[in-house]
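One such shown below:

_____
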Amino acid sequence: MKVSSLLSAATQESAQDWVRPVLMHPFVFIGTWVLLGTLFALQEWLNLRRWSYHIGLGIELESWDTEFLIWGILTWCIWRTLGFFIQKASIGAVLSRIFPMSFAVCVVKQMIWVLCFPGLPLNKPHMPYWTRFLFHFNAEIVDDLVIFWCTFFLFRGLGYYQRSRESENVAAQLEVQLANARLAALRMQLNPHFLFNAMNSISSLMRTDVEAADEMLEQLSSLLRISLERGSVQMIPLRDEIDFLEVYLSMQDKRYSDRVKRTIQVDPELHDALIPAMILQPIVENAYVHGLSKIEKDGDLSIEARKLRNNVVFTVVNSGVGLSRSTESQTGHGVGISNLRGRLQLHYGEDCSFEMLEIDRTHVRVRIELPVQFSNMQKAQITRFGVE
């Protein structure tokens, strides 16, 4: 999805469904107003008692709660009908439209409240409706305007908050898409590299052992079928990676005529652990190209996966010429290894480690440690060879 598409989607979501904060649910919003009125009523009642004015708590609660109930209903209706406009309004629009509306809302609120309480004020003789309206309006216009504009700025603040959250969501989506694009690019780079090396191995046997070359072609087709069925899947169960690696090692056995003794040990509780696809194959391939292919016999290759606290540790040890005589292996700048480093960084950031060192002059060890993950799904999605 392009950046413009994401921003457009966020804008449409704002225009169509901007009443999202829990505070703006009508029961929550209006209930908050009534609660605020109750607090003001209690405060005024206590102050009047302190000043020796004895007015019933009931009339205080009734008048204050009704007033703030009216405010709650009016302001929620304003939010419902003009909320998006208020959030986006320029200074000119605020002065030309919102400012006059503030007086109109105060007038409407006072008209409704005076209609509900014909007996107030208590210390005055009975007055006609409009006389009482003017009395209360003149006494409370400043307070009413303060309440209106506080509510207005609350709505504006909610708008800023929503736009900030939307911007964060868009940025997060873009970051995820960028990481997926980089991973996909690395996978596209890795597969041709693997195919090129495999075809070279087959080519080297064509003139010396046609039957072995034919078996390698069949095994290569199996590996390619698995790769195609995985598609763009990035994380796969460890057991699938080991199955893939077993086929690859069988191909190498044909090429090197069983010159290499290999062992694979996997902690049983890690078979379902999710790991990046083709994380071990580039290391094993590097071991053959830069180490095992340099010796004539008695080659050793050990592959181990074990759990260490909340991490999974992969260790690959191979015999050969060591790092001191293999510059590319030592620096780790081969396509497969540099590709693997890049994918680990994208997947785990600083939560993983990659180490390549020379144990002695004839043995090299590669150690990868990364967080152990398990899928919550009963069945893998998209393909049986992994989960996206």
